[in-house]
């Protein structure tokens, strides 16, 4: 019985450690707007990791859509952005955390998280487009 409990405990610790989100710096909505407006802004992309349906309904102009469930399958396409600032967001943050961890594990070194995600962007009345 003790052995089974210890095995379950060890398994839980390893699983918990693997799903803890990386410490990704946030960028504010205003910082994103400034980057988009600046003539000499550093190169960056906005990566929307919501579903294609959510993206089609409403998204930030210029955002690239790759669902968080498809990030690993699209690493070759995304690899051109490994040394570029990648600003990741979803609806509320959970899916973005998953995508950020995958990107970090695959050598993307300038990952940022959009503070407030899409919910915050919309609540602030910031511009979106529909596909």
Automatic annotation (TrEMBL):
Residues 40-130 form the Rhodanese domain. SUPFAM superfamilies: Rhodanese/Cell cycle control phosphatase. GO terms for molecular function: transferase activity. InterPro entries: GlpE_sulfurtransferase, Rhodanese-like_dom, Rhodanese-like_dom_sf. Residues 1-21 form the signal peptide. The keyword Glycosyltransferase does not apply. Transmembrane segments: none annotated. Keywords: Signal, Transferase. Gene3D superfamilies: Rhodanese-like domain (3.40.250.10). PANTHER family: FAD-DEPENDENT OXIDOREDUCTASE (PTHR43031), PYRIDINE NUCLEOTIDE-DISULPHIDE OXIDOREDUCTASE (PTHR43031:SF1). This is Rhodanese-related sulfurtransferase. The lineage of its organism: Bacteria, Pseudomonadati, Pseudomonadota, Gammaproteobacteria, Alteromonadales.
């Amino acid at each position: 019985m003790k052995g089974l409990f210890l095995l379950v405990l060890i398994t839980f610790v390893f699983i918990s450690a693997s799903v803890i989100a990386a410490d990704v710096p946030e960028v504010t909505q205003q910082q994103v707007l400034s980057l988009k407006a600046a003539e000499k802004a550093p190169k960056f992309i906005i990566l929307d990791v919501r579903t294609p349906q959510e993206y089609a309904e409403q998204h930030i102009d210029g955002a690239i859509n790759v669902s968080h469930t498809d990030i690993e399958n699209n690493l070759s396409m995304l690899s051109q952005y490994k040394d570029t600032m990648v600003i990741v967001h979803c609806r509320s943050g959970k899916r973005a955390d998953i995508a950020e961890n995958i990107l970090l594990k695959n050598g993307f070194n300038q990952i940022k998280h959009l503070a407030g995600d899409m919910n915050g962007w919309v609540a602030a009345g910031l511009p979106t487009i529909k596909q």
